[in-house]
């Protein structure tokens, strides 16, 4: 792709000091400052003619054994621009035969090398070179991500892609620090453990954070010496193909990382059921997670890491600074068009500050800048596709019909594409669908509570257990809630902090296992115990 500067292509200029802003975007101080800067836009602004990203899309085939190839069937499918619903490109449609070819390539690259036979230092250096290349191509990659997904370009370029780069550097750093232990035995034996790669890993990612989730899975899988067959989401196939090409330019040997575009029930299912895949990692809905687990168990019992849905509570206690709580609760729910597995989608507010909170939450939602994601200052773009758009509107209707108070929003913005006005409901009851189901959209449900025991019980009364936000000035309250909440992550006076070293995963039906950090490595490693007799040992 021509290395033309996108800012000029888009006739826009973006802040270049992205990384620093990105790492701390989520911390409250910076968040407020950033939000003040972008609040000059409002939802009442019309959706203009879409800004045309004038980059070429060069990679639409499947990536198997280091080469871009057509699907065995020759079939393709369109990927759409959520701003208009129009086609962006046609992409090769992978199915069982293509998964077979990709698994065979990954198997060969694992069994015969070179990947697991390379020194860990060499693997690490390839990953670092890839991170450098990716960083250099941030603008192109962020443009693809925005075009295919609808997320604001500034967020993609300043937050997500830097986090992807960081994740690969983090796991490159681990590659040569993975090793087993030597342990004492009760008799005269030498005992040690080897931490070995599984072999061929099957990775399935969704559309809400295509490249971020690519990095959470591909990073540790490769650092541990596994080879990969990645199935991208049918809604967002473009960015993974582009960056995987860069990975090969960085020196990745053929067959180590294979990328298949295609649909869940065909390509996805073939990967989950494959007898020659040794390990699966899946991110998506809990419903599909169950199906994935079933296919893994009925084929070769391959182990599965599952990163699934959520209905995370965000708890605003009576001592909270209401203005700050409103800002953070807004961010916790509306970030990424509300399409976050860990969205703070049940905003529990103490009765003593409830009315003030609702008033201010409504005012904040009204100021949210919704519009073309390529436009500078846009906070919220369109939803991913028509199905999600319709699903969200259906939940909004159910909220209204169920008796919740619609404070603002509740409908499409404009008439083209999948934009939804930031929506706030108050007087939400625990049994309403907007309080029980993962909406995956810009819909904030505000519930009232009286005391801590009650809010703990209600926050935990869900089959999900991904994350929770706690907003309080009291250390005691924070500690009480932290231990009582049955979730994989508790953010205290902050939200969506996703550093590479912080583990992420769910309790209950939000998933199995952890990704990121040192914990994320263990799901890509087998532990082998090695025992041998000792003759007249000097010590035991
Ligand atoms: P999904 O869970 O069906 O799709 C996620 C990935 O799984 C995609 O790559 C898809 O192709 C694949 N997949 C689907 N069916 C499969 C199968 N039978 N075997 C193997 N792979 C399969 O999610 P979808 O349909 O895109 O969105 C529906 C809802 O799921 C959303 O409204 C949201 O509530 C939730 N969701 C949650 C995500 C999260 O990050 N936890 C991400 C995406 C969706
Ligand atoms: Mg798309």
Automatic annotation (TrEMBL):
Catalyses which reaction(s): an aldehyde + NAD(+) + H2O = a carboxylate + NADH + 2 H(+)
Cellular component, GO, one term: mitochondrion
One Gene Ontology MF term: aldehyde dehydrogenase (NAD+) activity
Enzyme type, top EC level: oxidoreductase
UniProt xrefs under Pfam families: Aldedh
Signal peptide: 1-21
Top-level taxon: Eukaryota
InterPro entries: Ald_DH/histidinol_DH, Ald_DH_C, Ald_DH_CS_CYS, Ald_DH_CS_GLU, Ald_DH_N, Aldehyde_DH_dom
EC numbers, comma separated: 1.2.1.3
Span of domain Aldehyde dehydrogenase: 68-530
Enzyme active site: 307
Keywords: NAD, Oxidoreductase, Signal
GO BP of this protein: carboxylic acid metabolic process
Family annotation (PANTHER family): ALDEHYDE DEHYDROGENASE-RELATED
Family: Belongs to the aldehyde dehydrogenase family.
Function: Possesses activity on acetaldehyde and glycolaldehyde in vitro.
Name of protein: aldehyde dehydrogenase (NAD(+))
Organism this protein belongs to: Corchorus capsularis (Jute)
């Amino acid at each position: 792709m021509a290395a033309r500067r996108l800012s000029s292509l888009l006739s826009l200029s973006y802040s270049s000091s992205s990384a620093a802003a990105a790492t701390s975007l989520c911390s409250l101080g910076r968040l407020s400052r950033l939000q003040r800067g972008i609040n000059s836009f409002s939802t009442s602004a019309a959706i203009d003619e879409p800004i045309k990203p004038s980059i070429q899309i060069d990679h639409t085939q499947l990536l198997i054994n280091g080469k871009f190839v057509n699907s065995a069937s020759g079939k393709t499918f369109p990927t759409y621009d959520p701003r208009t619903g129009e086609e962006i490109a046609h992409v090769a449609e992978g199915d069982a035969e293509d998964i077979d070819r990709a698994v065979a390539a990954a198997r060969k690259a694992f069994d015969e090398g070179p990947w697991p036979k390379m020194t860990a230092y060499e693997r690490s250096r390839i990953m670092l070179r890839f991170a450098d290349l990716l960083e250099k191509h941030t603008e192109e990659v962020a443009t693809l991500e925005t075009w295919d997904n609808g997320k604001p370009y500034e967020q993609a370029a300043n937050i997500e892609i830097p986090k992807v780069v960081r994740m690969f550097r983090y796991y490159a750093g681990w590659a040569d620090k993975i090793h087993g232990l030597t342990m004492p035995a009760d008799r005269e034996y030498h005992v040690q453990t080897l931490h070995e790669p599984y072999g061929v890993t099957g990775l399935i990612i969704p559309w809400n954070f295509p490249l971020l989730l690519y990095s959470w899975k591909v990073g540790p899988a490769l650092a541990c010496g596994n080879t990969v067959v990645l199935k991208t989401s049918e809604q967002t196939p473009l960015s993974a193909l582009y960056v995987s090409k860069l990975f090969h330019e960085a020196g990745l040997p053929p067959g180590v990382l294979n990328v298949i575009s295609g649909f869940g029930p065909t390509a996805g299912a073939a990967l989950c059921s494959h007898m020659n895949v040794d390990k699966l990692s899946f991110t998506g809905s809990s419903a599909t997670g169950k199906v994935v687990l079933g296919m893994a168990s009925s084929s070769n019992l391959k182990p599965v890491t599952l990163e699934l849905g959520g209905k995370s509570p965000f708890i605003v206690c009576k001592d909270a600074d209401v203005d700050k709580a409103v800002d953070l609760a807004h961010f916790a729910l509306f970030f990424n068009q509300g399409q976050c597995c860990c969205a703070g989608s049940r905003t529990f507010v103490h009765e003593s500050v409830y009315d003030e909170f609702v008033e201010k939450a409504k005012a904040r939602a009204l100021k949210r800048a919704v519009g073309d994601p390529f436009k500078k200052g846009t906070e919220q773009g369109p939803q991913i596709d028509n199905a999600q758009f319709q699903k969200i509107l259906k939940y909004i209707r159910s909220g209204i019909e169920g008796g919740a108070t619609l404070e603002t929003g509740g409908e499409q913005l404009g008439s083209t594409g999948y934009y939804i006005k930031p929506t706030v409901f108050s007087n939400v009851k625990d049994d309403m669908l907007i309080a029980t189901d993962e909406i995956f959209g810009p819909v904030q449900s505000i519930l009232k509570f009286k005391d801590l025991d009650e809010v703990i019980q209600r926050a935990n009364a869900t089959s999900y257990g991904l994350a929770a936000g706690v907003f309080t000035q009291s250390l005691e309250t924070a500690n009480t809630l932290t231990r009582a909440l049955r979730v994989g992550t508790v953010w205290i006076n902050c939200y969506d902090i996703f550093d590479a070293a912080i583990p992420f995963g769910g309790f209950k039906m939000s998933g199995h296992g952890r990704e990121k950090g040192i914990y994320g490595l263990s799901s890509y490693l087998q532990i082998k115990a090695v025992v041998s007799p000792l003759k007249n040992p000097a010590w035991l």
